[in-house]
Batch of 2 targets.
Target 1
Amino acid sequence: MDSLRESATFDRTTIAAIQRAARTGVYDIRGGGAKRAVPHFDDLVFLGASMSRYPLEGYRESCGTDVVLGGRHASSPLHLDIPVTIAGMSFGALSGPAKEAIGRGASEAGTSTTTGDGGMTDEERGHSSHLVYQYLPSRYGMNPDHLRAADAIEIVLGQGAKPGGGGMLLGQKITDRVAGMRTLPPGIDQRSACRHPDWTGPDDLAIKIGELREITDWTKPIYVKVGASRPFYDVQLAVKAGADVVVVDGMQGGTAATQDVFIEHVGIPTLAALPEAVRALQEMGVHREVQLIVSGGVRGGADLAKCLALGADAVAIGTAALIALGDNDPGLDAEYRALGSAAGYYDDWQDGRDPAGITTQDPALAARLDPIEGGRRLANFLRVMTMEAQTIARACGKAHVQHLEPEDLAALTIEAAAMARIPLAGTNWIPGVSF
Amino acid sequence: MGTVIDLSVTSVRSLNADLHALPAGATDSIRVLRPDGRHSLAAGLDRPVTVEIDGHAGYYCAGMNQLATVSVHGNVGVGVAENMMSGRVHVHGDASQSAGATAHGGLLVIDGNASARCGISMKGADIVVGGDAGHMSAFMAQAGRLVICGDAGDALGDSIYEARIYVRGSVASLGADCVQKEMSPSHLAELSLLLAAAGRAEDPSEFRRYGSARTLYHFHSDNAY
């Protein structure tokens, strides 16, 4: 075997993809985000305190974590205890117990969760202390009573996994309840529109935001979420249209069901999008006045701290939250293998047979997830993320995680240095900025 | 004699705030003067009030309406009665794009013409257009009825689900998966009721019916390893 040489161009994954396409005649649909290696937060490190920086005492001296979102125009902005929010994931894509668990976990940790395509469920509202209501192109389940019952509104223009794409929920997950919420026949493959039905372009979006503010009497913060493709311009246009908060989702951000080719080849990495979004806000003089939430491959406290240091106000997690609930649990490995996958690899979130009971509408599978236990695990994970970020912030001498700044960072690769506009470690060189 | 609000001296914010503050079950009548194309007029109403708007309205007039009866004695901009849940909205002039978009219930009547994407993604409402409707009308329409007494533009009913379309005049072209369907006695009866509700005098027998061929309902794709 040592004499065999795998092709870098036609590696085993590529060969398997060609063989699968030749065998089935259909393209691959899966869940999750981009799997390919792209420049990411691992390519940054914190410098920590030194002779010229004064650290805070680990876990004893105060290091704040709270954040206020949406105070630009809304009379009732969100006050969150931690700068980690839960990204929009629909009931339909996720089971009822999974949505309840997310609500429980987020509420216990003092943060917000978000609806998704298909509308708001009573369970979700009931278990979420802070609930963001997504306003999507499909408007499935869109109800003005829910708009008024929400704590914030997120106008979704795109997702990092598929900027420019709509959504899909395959028929095996369209139960009677899901179909009823979306006004569709049960069992059909459901397409979610990629364009909003009643506005086109940023000037119209400003009027649309005005309507949503009128309907909710200017109380609710209004977020605008974009998939990362042209973040500088998208962020500026969202701000101009009146957004209180802008959400930028990079290509590692997950999806419930999208073509693999879309996930892997459309959009830009989160690390590349975040500095552009910050630059857009700074150029308009609204950095910190309009809050920035970043998502797409955020996995723990180090990623959180790096996002904050680069200028984000908060992050959103989706895939990491599902893993915290029990997705890809090694204890389910035999069941994953029976589905042609394995623990650590499972991404068939689209097909409704999730043995963890998370990405399914099968009542028997969904019943496997205890929402109380799931909520506890998620709350634990959120607390650990926050404590990890505090640990780093204290080491950098910051009394609040929001005080982290680009100066606290160094880049390990030229690509990361160029994208994040952070000097390559051991140098003062930022490719494209300094020489 | 109901309340009269003159938008040359009162803001849209004040108008909507007053309408939202009415007690549940209120049946007040409000007349709005000099709208002058302002946006979001009477948006988000959820009381069985009557609102008469004397003049042209901008975008999203009567947006997300619940229970209220709103009449516009003029033309309306984009998205009149978008996502309406119930009640009645009557435009006595023409309507711009996306009239009745995603509306779940209630009746939208447009005496004049409707521009592109009328009834886009409608989810159960009824829409009656006295004149012509523009291209891509009833795009991805899920449920409800769209009646076009004049002509329909290109790509009518593209990607339609279970909504039903009735057209009296010509159809420039049908969109993907939209086909002409048989007009049964029950459909004629349904159409008669819709026309009567809209105050129209057209003969239902002059209309043709369109709906989904349902060939796009299944994506024919999975991870069939």
Target 2
Amino acid sequence: MLEPHWILLIMLGVFVVCAMLLKVPTGLSLIAASMVGALAGGEGLPLRHLVEGAFTYIDPILIIASAMVFMASLEQSGALGSISRGLLVHLHSRPALLVVGLTVFIMFPGMITGQSTATVLTTGAIAAPVLSACGIPRPKVAAIIAMSAIYGMIAPPISLPTMIMGSGVDMPFTGFDIPLLIATMPLAIGVNLGLARRYLKNIDMEAVLGDLDENHATRHGWRLYLPIVLVALLLIGIRLVPFLAANLGIALVFLIGAAVGTRTGRRFNLFSAARRSIRQALPVMGILVGVGTFIQVMTLVGIRGMLVVTALGLPSLWKYAGVAVMMPLFGAVSAYGSASVLGVPFLLSFLGQDEIVVGSALSLFAGLGDLMPPTALAGMFAAQIVGEPNYFRVLKHTAVPAVITALWAIGMIILANPLAKIIPG
Amino acid sequence: MILTLIYQAIVLLFCVVLVWEVFTEKKFARQLTAVVVLVPMLLRLLMIK
Amino acid sequence: MSIDRHRPLSIGISLLITAVLVVLSARSFQVQHRDEVLYPSDGLTRAFPLSEVNPHLAGTAGDTEVYVYEGSAPGGSVLVLGGTHPSEIAGYMAPVLMIETLHVEAGRVFIIPRANASAATHNEPQEAHPQHIVIETAGGSRSFRFGARFTNPVHQWPDPEVYVQPISGTTLAGVEIRNLNRAFPGIADGNLTERVAWAITELIRRESIDVSFDIHESSPEYPVINAIVASEVSQEIASFATISLQLDGWEFSLEPSPPNFHGLSHREWTDHTDTQPILLETANPAMGRLRGPTNAELAVLGQDDQYVKAAAIGAINVPFDEEGISIERRIARDLVAIGAIVEAFNMLNPERAILMGGWPEPAALMEDGLGRYLAPARDGTSPR
């Protein structure tokens, strides 16, 4: 049998050949790499392991799918368009505030679903014309959307990378809200203002408003926003008063919101909206299944242990470099995979520093994986929605923000204990 | 438990959509992606895994 | 969107692949739902399902067998719980070995080898654990299930986003709602895990069990290992036992039961029953994140190159060399600890002494192997 590091190289090789040369979808490439890895590890084709790995993500897949249906519902009912229109109408005279408002707006689906792709494809797609209308070039618009989506994925209340790491070290997902806000909000606002700074002068309202969806709020009034309020209440209710709020689960909450959305604004067919949104989410769901399979095989043949022992063996200064390089690189496979395989041992290796702050910072590194070719999910989908054929043009603009993000995260790890002291709760 | 039944119904809904995707999608690679998502969904729907 | 009439072939292939994958993997998953046969020693006096204690368990995947060994002389009583976490395989095999070898002269011994029977029916995703371990006996090989830490979601699903323990109000990650060792003291008609927990707590109360053991394993990098965990009411017998074990050359640390960590067996049995609770913990490399290739041999032999490296750089809490920590060594640790604690109980409560034995000496067990002392496989009764 081959040594684990050789098997890892073979798996990565198969993945790169499938995903880049043969243009096979990422999820399927991961599964192909897993099958070859199992063969190389002398395990034959262990069907049970290949299928079992995916079950880690069965609940996240349900959440993503139902979140996509919810976002489609908001889009169809006119609520999302009305929000971005409202932002523009009220804030066009204060462009900096407009960028901040749009940043939070783009981040929102990421914050409640914990994933970046759905964010890019929903609020990202709605914000894109507004940002373009401000005169920002397309690749930069895509960069703003990609970065916001990544920060949204990490930001509370739902941060899947952080939750994945926490469950690896028996740490409940509580007390993370403020550290995750510290990890994301200053970066999101600072980075986006930096990217947009040269274009924040004149906004031609006439031209811009013509590009946008009509304002449905005038016709439907506050009812238009009822699904958002309802979902927010149910999600917050579960977190704040778990005794009182029936624990419906996030997937059901989103579907309830989506169903309510059919009656609160422009009418639409929920089933066809569901079909369209799942079609959109399919590549991401496929990637999650692929990552599950990939990690199960890595564990099976001993690669996981090899990576963990290597990470733990790094001398302390190198550990920061190791984190900053290995986690985003591995994130090219998937941010979640990076959080699970590398985030957990690194979290353990920073023993003595406040693990909640460290975990929040490590999530940033995992999130940066969404900018890492060949997959670069956030960059690629952002390029797609602004109509930029070459996503490397987008990645050119995200390079500096990515470095700033990495430095911010390293700073948080170094200052974890003092930070933890001043964080309330 | 009622909640289990509701979640099975949600899984059923997504299974139907995924099968629909297999039937309407033109690219074989995307059909296969739907298949790999469908397999764990069906196993959970049938309460096997 | 209309169905493309020109692509029936790729549709057919896709559906065929789906069907084949579902059917084949379903069959391999279902293998794990079959209980392996145990062969109790002739010291067994009776056995009953746990649903006799909690009728809400009847017909569910949480119902499980309770084995009772009664001596001819009166005495105190002991409960031995295995398989609270069925992925901690020595925590299951130690009670199994007891069931197949035990003789009681005085007092009563209750053994529940599969405390969370549902969790024994599946494996945790991404852990790549084996479904079974195989032990060679005189009559051929016997296989035993290697299960999961949590109740099978097939029997209890979905999980809430956060799990709020009903009694203490403590908030935990949602998945912990399926962890039997967070569910004590349990709720008679709660979710499946809570029902099992209640039944066990109620059994302790109903039978006035004097000493209750809950046997676990954990990864070599976990802080609490090779430990005897005792609460304030079992501190005395645990201290006596630890000292006598150390005099005999066994390394054990004595850990207190955290007063505010609710849902744990030793905590809640202390607060809700009159028993003296003890939790035993051995180190098993098959549980850890640092392990190399994951398979049944690792779980049985306990040898792992990655852990040897990790020990060299000081990343783990137990000594670990090429010899590893075999399942025999882990079981032997559990059995000597049980023996020493019962002895300490007898010393402090001579009027309620529990006299039991029959299982192999630790040195013999480690020398001869587990298969030598388990009952031989009998034709057609051993599964698989």
